[in-house]
């Protein structure tokens, strides 16, 4: 199943055992079982439920989700149907509304002229009951909760009326005889009108916000009121919405479930809900009245992004009937759009720009994900199954997504969407990133529209630091894909820009400051601020080029860059918990360390420039974590492939033919190199040496030299030295070594030839030694005091030349402290020259 539902609360499993322990009467349990249902969920997560006892009385209880204990609140000794109930945070006051019907269907005697009765009850201890409303329209009740638990002497109660108004009652309480709570001046409770003439309202119990829609000049205007801990409230924003609510039965969201409504009729009405999360996102999900069963239209207003996306989907096969209405579920960074038995659309609300980052499932791909009964989305990814009384915590099922990637994803858009949904799970406990890495290693070349390895590197590194910094989504890329023009099968899309200048945010604290920051970014930031490595690429190529030509930058500048790289390597090592089988980070690899250090410097400057309110130490750690993650992902991909074949560390042996595991690692490294080169991303030090060593193992000489000449394989000092040491001087190996040495830069060639015991290497070493000595040579009168050559030869030109070299060596040693390297001196040169001449003459 694409979504996993974990039972958070089951009204029967969590309440009935407690009732059985208290009552001991099977008749009570039978009656309670039939009538038990959830009425409300308060801000602290406590769940209010009601049932009928064996006398028909309405009983209210509360389930504490922290202690997992039940508490009886109040018994109303009348046979009345409860509509709504709420209890204040101190559990001293209870408000409830009832529809007054007796078993015979006539009105109750309490207020025979009214349909709905709203009561306020003192329950600590149970004492007086006050009638707040006795009207013919239905009433819903909701206590306001402060941000911190406290023993306050005032509570505030919202009354929401079917007659399109909302009132707030101020209830003063006093304590008598110890802890006995009494309502002060209960006959005249102060009240104020919060809103009126609206057609739709939604309560966010977690953040204490009231959203509602008013019709102003035939336009739907969404408004929001924030209730504060100091008992005040503020109108936070107004936003015109181009939606039609005609045919909408007056509807409340999250004020409790109205069990009297006909669900078959509700599914053919417009649907509207508002979702937010802590990052400052604000989404309005809307589905108009169904005019045809052949297609379903729904819209999501991404107010934090400045546009609206309207989707049109075919709900199923021709002639299929949509028996249930559309359901929107808030899953944090995802919104699920769901019609039972037809489709499931997982919308990425954090990065909704491209349709390929949202997963659309139909038919057998969707599976039976959610119960078919009416569902109510609650904050914190909670879902209330209104019929069964169960509360679930909904999460994306990573195991299903991995099954989908392995077995069902055929199109690039499906692979991209499922990959991003899976990486979103990285913030959840129990996330197994190695499963994602394994799939990518096996399918590295499976996509034509994008590079899977690039997508893993960018997306996974992004999500690894996403929780650490605010606004990081504006500063770091989350995907390698910048545009997507392919259609998503089964769903059509229309995108419209929203007039954000009409949206006014009136308060800039907490969540609202983040929302306003998002709005300001959309309105005024052109182009976007995502970090890219273009500056790093130019500077890195410049540094590498200067090192090859012998030029040098400021020693302090280069040292700072290399120190940055050391910090990243240390950060990686502290996070590596288990021993690795692939040997990386075991050599200097100066070029890669320069690239790592440059990226640290540039990324840090980028974040500091745009996050001026964040302390630099936190930014520094975020940068180290981000680049460590990039390097570690590469390492993990190689580990994953190697562990398929062996549980033992890989030991490079050039005198053996490459194994199947080495062939597979080599080809994966080649793809990783191609992916990182285009992004100018660093690789773990030692990567190129390992890659070249595997190339010698796995490729014929012609292909090997072709890879080297085209820059795919780099001849690092470590790799070439290992090659010179490990391979014997067979004819095949000599040909390989000659070909390698001929392609080396002069300085590196001179170094590695010292490890090859061969006349050709002696010749190269001698030529380099002579070239160094003669670099500044000026012809001077011959010093007759120089002794003869140590070799008994009468070849006068050679004798003369050796005498000159000996004199130069003596001069260098006197002036500069010069000493021949590795016993390379004039005698070595003389011996090499004679041997080389002998070979040339065939003697």
From TrEMBL:
The gene is LOC101826824. It comes from Mesocricetus auratus (Golden hamster). Residues 631-738 form the Gamma-secretase-activating protein C-terminal domain. CDD domains: GSAP (cd23105). This is Gamma-secretase-activating protein isoform X5. It holds the Pfam family GSAP-16. InterPro entries: GSAP_C_dom, GSAP_fam. It comes from the Eukaryota.
């Amino acid at each position: 199943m694409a979504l996993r539902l974990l039972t958070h609360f089951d009204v029967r499993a969590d309440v009935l055992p407690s009732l059985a322990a208290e009552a001991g009467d099977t008749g009570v349990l039978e009656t309670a079982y039939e009538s038990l249902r959830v009425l409300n969920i308060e801000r602290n997560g406590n769940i209010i439920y009601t049932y009928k006892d064996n006398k028909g009385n309405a009983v209210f209880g509360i389930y504490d989700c922290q202690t997992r204990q039940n508490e009886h609140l109040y018994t109303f000794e009348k046979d009345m149907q409860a509509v709504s109930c709420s209890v204040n945070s101190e559990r001293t006051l209870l408000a409830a509304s009832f529809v007054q019907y007796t078993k015979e269907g006539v009105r109750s005697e309490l207020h025979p002229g009214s349909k709905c009765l709203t009561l306020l009850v003192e329950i600590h201890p149970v004492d007086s009951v006050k009638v707040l409303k006795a009207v013919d329209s239905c009433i819903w009740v909701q206590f306001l909760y402060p941000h911190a638990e406290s023993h306050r002497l005032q509570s505030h109660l919202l009354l929401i009326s079917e007659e399109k108004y909302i009132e707030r009652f101020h209830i003063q309480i006093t304590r008598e005889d110890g802890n006995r709570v009494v309502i002060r001046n209960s006959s005249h409770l102060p009240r104020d009108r919060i809103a009126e003439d609206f057609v739709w309202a939604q309560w966010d119990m977690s953040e204490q916000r009231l959203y509602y829609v008013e019709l102003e000049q035939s336009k739907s205007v969404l408004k929001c009121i924030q209730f504060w801990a100091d008992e005040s409230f503020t109108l936070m924003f107004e936003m015109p919405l181009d939606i039609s609510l005609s045919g909408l039965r007056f509807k409340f969201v999250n004020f409790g479930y109205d069990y009297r409504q006909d669900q078959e009729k509700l599914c053919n009405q417009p649907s509207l809900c508002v979702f937010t999360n802590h990052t400052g996102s604000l989404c309005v999900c809307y589905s108009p009245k169904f005019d045809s069963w052949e297609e379903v239209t729904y819209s999501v207003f991404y107010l934090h992004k400045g546009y609206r996306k309207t989707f049109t989907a075919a709900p199923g096969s021709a002639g299929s009937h949509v028996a249930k209405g559309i359901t929107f579920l808030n899953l944090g960074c995802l919104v699920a759009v769901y019609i039972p038995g037809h489709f499931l659309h997982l919308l990425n609300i954090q990065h909704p720009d491209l349709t390929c980052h949202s997963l659309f499932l139909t038919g057998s791909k969707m599976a039976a994900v959610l119960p078919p009964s009416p569902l109510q989305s609650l904050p914190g990814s909670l879902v209330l199954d209104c019929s069964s009384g169960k509360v679930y915590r909904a999460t994306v099922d990573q195991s299903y997504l991995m099954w989908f990637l392995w077995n069902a994803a055929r199109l690039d858009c499906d692979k991209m969407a499922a990959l991003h949904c899976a990486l979103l799970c990285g913030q959840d406990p129990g996330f197994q990133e190695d499963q994602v890495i394994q799939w990518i290693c096996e399918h590295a070349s499976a996509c034509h529209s994008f590079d899977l390895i690039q997508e893993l590197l960018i997306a996974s590194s992004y999500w690894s630091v996403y929780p650490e910094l605010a606004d990081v989504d504006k500063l770091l890329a989350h995907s390698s894909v910048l545009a997507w023009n392919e259609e998503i099968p089964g769903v059509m899309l229309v995108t419209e820009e929203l007039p954000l200048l009409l949206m006014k945010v009136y308060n800039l604290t907490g969540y609202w400051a983040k929302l306003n920051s998002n709005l300001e970014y959309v309105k005024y930031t052109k182009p976007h601020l995502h970090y890219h490595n273009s500056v790093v690429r130019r500077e890195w190529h410049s540094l590498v080029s200067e090192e090859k030509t012998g030029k040098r930058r400021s020693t302090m500048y280069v040292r700072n860059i290399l120190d940055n790289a050391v910090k990243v390597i240390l950060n990686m090592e502290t996070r590596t918990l288990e021993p690795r089988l692939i040997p990386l980070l075991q050599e200097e690899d100066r070029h890669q360390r320069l690239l790592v250090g440059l990226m640290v410097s540039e990324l840090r400057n980028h974040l500091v420039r745009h996050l001026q309110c964040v302390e630099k130490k936190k930014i520094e750690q975020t940068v180290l974590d981000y680049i460590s993650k990039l390097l570690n992902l590469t390492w993990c991909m190689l580990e994953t492939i190697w562990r398929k074949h062996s549980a033992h560390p890989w030991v490079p042996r050039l005198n053996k033919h490459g194994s199947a595991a080495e062939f597979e690692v080599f080809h994966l490294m080649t793809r990783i190199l191609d992916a990182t080169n285009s992004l100018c991303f660093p690789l773990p030090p030692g990567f190129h040496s390992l890659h070249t060593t595997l190339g010698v193992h796995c490729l014929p000489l012609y292909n090997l030299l072709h890879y080297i000449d085209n820059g795919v394989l780099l001849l690092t000092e470590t790799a070439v030295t290992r090659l010179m040491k490990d391979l014997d001087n067979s004819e095949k190996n000599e040909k390989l070594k000659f070909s390698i040495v001929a392609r080396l830069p002069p300085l590196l060639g001179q170094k590695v030839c010292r490890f090859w015991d061969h006349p050709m290497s002696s010749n190269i070493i001698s030529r380099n030694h002579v070239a160094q000595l003669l670099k500044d040579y000026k012809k001077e009168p011959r010093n007759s005091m120089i002794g003869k050559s140590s070799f008994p030869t009468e070849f006068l030109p050679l004798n003369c030349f050796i005498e000159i070299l000996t004199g130069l060596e003596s001069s260098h040693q006197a002036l500069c402290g010069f000493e021949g390297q590795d016993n390379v001196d004039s005698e070595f040169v003389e011996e090499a020259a004679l041997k080389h001449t002998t070979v040339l003459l065939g003697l």
